[in-house]
Amino acid sequence: MNLSPFIGIDWGSTHLRAFRYANDGAVLETRRASQGAAGRPRDQYEPALRDVLGDWLDAAPKRIIVCGMAGAREGWIEAPYLACPRRLADLPEALATPDANLPVSIAPGLSTLSDDGVHDVLRGEETQMFGALQEHSSLVVTPGTHSKWAYVSDGVVHRFRTYMTGELFALLSTQSALARTIDPSASFDALAFEQGARRALSGGALSHVAFGVRAEALFGALTPPAAKSYLSGLLIGVEVADALKANDGVSIAVIGADDIVGLYQRALALAGGRAVIAINGEQAAAKGLWRIANARGAS
Amino acid sequence: MNLSPFIGIDWGSTHLRAFRYANDGAVLETRRASQGAAGRPRDQYEPALRDVLGDWLDAAPKRIIVCGMAGAREGWIEAPYLACPRRLADLPEALATPDANLPVSIAPGLSTLSDDGVHDVLRGEETQMFGALQEHSSLVVTPGTHSKWAYVSDGVVHRFRTYMTGELFALLSTQSALARTIDPSASFDALAFEQGARRALSGGALSHVAFGVRAEALFGALTPPAAKSYLSGLLIGVEVADALKANDGVSIAVIGADDIVGLYQRALALAGGRAVIAINGEQAAAKGLWRIANARGAS
After folding, report:
1. Rounded to the nearest 5°, which phi and psi values hold at A63?
2. Are strands A252-256 and B104-106 parallel, antiparallel or unpaired?
3. CA distance B110 to B157
4. What pLDDT is stored for residue B250 in this prediction?
5. Distance in Å, alpha carbon of A86 to nearest chain B alpha carbon
6. Mind telling me how many Å the CA of B59 is from chain A's nearest CA?
7. What is the pLDDT of residue A218?
8. Is-contact A134 A247, C-beta < 8 A?
9. pLDDT tens across B283-298, in order?
10. B91-127 pLDDT, tens per residue?
11. Taking a C-beta distance cutoff of 8 angstroms, is the pair A96, A106 a contact?
């Protein structure tokens, strides 16, 4: 029997992913569930976890390592942010233990300060980075509702920035004056995406270039299906332009689901001049959770 | 009897303002009503106008000049955009006449193209500019849901840019992940506003700096009442930084309601180096409508 005594849980706001490992860390089985952390009462974490794990618990796992929003202040138990610069290898030493009849430990998030003293935070992405990164220096991007761009070198996260790209896309495409000129069910339009990304990469504030979606539509220069990809290109282009400006010319690792990683690869190609590698986000989380568990051992 | 035969109507999306003039153009009476143009069926413009004007119609006005969203494609009748560069004095020659039993004419909006060929549009602000501007050159700002920055010289609108500042403030402060850290009923906090404006003026994409509202709140560095003014400062700061970058060092005229004009004056003072004059937006609209009516005459 080569089943590991470890289980990994990536517990985000809207979903949960559970990983069961072989003794060598290979993922034997993955379960995806909709029991997200958002709005979940403290006493509803353990029941949700038992629901999802089910028969996995028959093997009496020794460690269940959780990362993500379950460790937020309003989550299961707060796993306080570790301030950057910070070694990713410090994560296993900073786990929080909720009151539960399961051997659960929750990974901390990271915090950073901008040059002008403003905080930024991430939670969940630290574990993906721990799982994905080799020893070389890299600018790491985890695209999403709130994209994170971290500068990591020799296993140390030096600083990072959040961009509310996914959330602004959702708000602008469904709730704003642009909504009536955007077809939310449209499939991806590469040309429109690159048009939007190019415009944003050449400068211009988001609050300005976004209005172009409406004005171009009024003149028949942008159709509702194309407008969806154009707006996506604008938002990702603004993010890429700003993030590259703030960082040295190192290589870039994009960690996420294949479709969104593809969008960032397109935008980064238009921005030019950087080596880009793509890393599957789910696999990175699974590996990071495994590394944390392994560092703590089974005793 | 010095009553003018002209009436002016500033018909926006959410409200309507009606102006009754003396023969010399002085505003004798102003009526403000909530019958906005947004979602109004074509056949519901004349009844709404009769409701608001009421006894003013007893004097059998010769001209009722309308500006704003009533002239949009989905409005009363489309008054097509005039392309920039455009003399403001051309406005009276381009009025649209809806099918009505009142002597109504609707002013056109303006359109422009960015250097990279993207459209922008405005409607209503052209009339405020016509009313407000003397012959000198100026960068004109009309703050609001969609702020407009126009470069006007010798009565010609050369180009302009829209910023979705007011709309993004509403979406971010009530619908986004920032909402729970913002007290929407808070009164103005000048220090927090200037802190936000300073951060935005020093660069950084909106999608990034906006997340600082959440992260600062997590560390107790920003209270929910202060967060409202801080976010306002961020959004106006991003707008001001971008608009000044795109325009020469001319003086700036801010046209709008006194409170919002005050916010822009603060942000512009932090940006530095420009002479700023404040112009009441309602008076500017009234005067612009008067000028249009006067140019057409009463016959």
Report:
1. -140, 135
2. unpaired
3. 9
4. 81
5. 18
6. 39
7. 95
8. no
9. 999 999 999 999 998 7
10. 999 999 999 999 999 999 999 999 989 999 999 999 9
11. yes
Instruction: Answer yes or no: are the C-beta atoms of B276 and B269 closer than 8 Å.
Output: yes
Beta bridge partners of A142: A148
Tokens of A108: 């901390």
Going by C-beta distance under 8 Å and a sequence separation of 6 or more, which residues neighbour residue B282?
B10, B17, B30, B257
Structure tokens at B123: 């409607």
Q: How far is A167 from chain B (nearest CA, A)?
A: 7
Instruction: Report the C-alpha dihedral over residues B182, B185, B190, B194, rounded to 10 degrees.
Output: 30
Chain B residues with CB inside 8 Å of A162's CB? 208, 211, 215
In chain B, what percentage of residues exceed pLDDT 90? Answer: 91
Identify the residue among A208, A209, A230, A239 best suited for mutation to test binding to B, counting B beta carbons within 10 A and taking the highest: A208
Contact B4, B269 (CB under 8 A): no
B191-213: average pLDDT: 96
Which stretches of chain A drop beneath a pLDDT of 50?
none
Query: Using an 8 Å Cβ cutoff, are A286 and A261 in contact?
Result: no
User: What would you measure as the largest C-alpha separation in chain A, in angstroms?
Assistant: 67
Task: Calculate the CA B216 to chain-centre distance.
Answer: 32
Determine, for residues B120 and A239 on separate chains, whether the beta-carbon distance falls below 8 Å.
no
State chain B's mean pLDDT as an integer.
95
Among A123, A207, A236, the strongest candidate for a mutation testing the B interface, having the largest count of B CBs within 10 A, is A207
Strand, coil or helix: what is B277? strand
pLDDT at B135: 63
The CB-side HSE value for B143 (13 A sphere, CA atoms) comes to: 28
Instruction: Kindly list the distances between the CA atom of residue A132 and the CA atoms of A4, A86, A152, A256, B104, in Å, as whole numbers in the listed order.
Output: 20, 16, 11, 11, 67
- Confidence at residue B297, expressed as pLDDT on a 0 to 100 scale: 87
SS3 B99: coil
pLDDT at A1: 53
CB contact under 8 A, A119 and B215: yes
* Burial category of A100 from C-beta neighbours within 10 Å (exposed 0-12, middle 13-18, buried 19 and up): middle
Amino acid (1-letter code) at residue B4: S
DSSP state of A111: E
What tokens were used for A28?
A: 């034997």
The DSSP bridge pattern shows strands B119-122 and B16-22 to be unpaired
Spatial CA neighbour of B291 closest among B107, B118, B144, B39 = B107
Burial A102-113 (b: 16+ CB within 10 A, else e): ebbbbbbbbbbe
Residue range B1-57, pLDDT digits in tens: 589 999 999 999 999 999 999 999 999 999 999 999 999 999 999 999 999 999 999
Q: Is the pLDDT of residue B277 over 80?
A: yes
Mark yes or no for CB contact B208/A172 under 8 Å. no
Distance separating alpha carbons of residues A153 and A170, to the nearest angstrom: 33
Q: Which residue has the tokens 């407008």?
A: A227
d(CA A221, CA A251): 36
Q: What is the predicted pLDDT for the residue at B1?
A: 53
Q: Is B239 exposed, middle or buried (0-12, 13-18, 19+ CB in 10 A)?
A: buried
Amino acid A135: pLDDT: 63
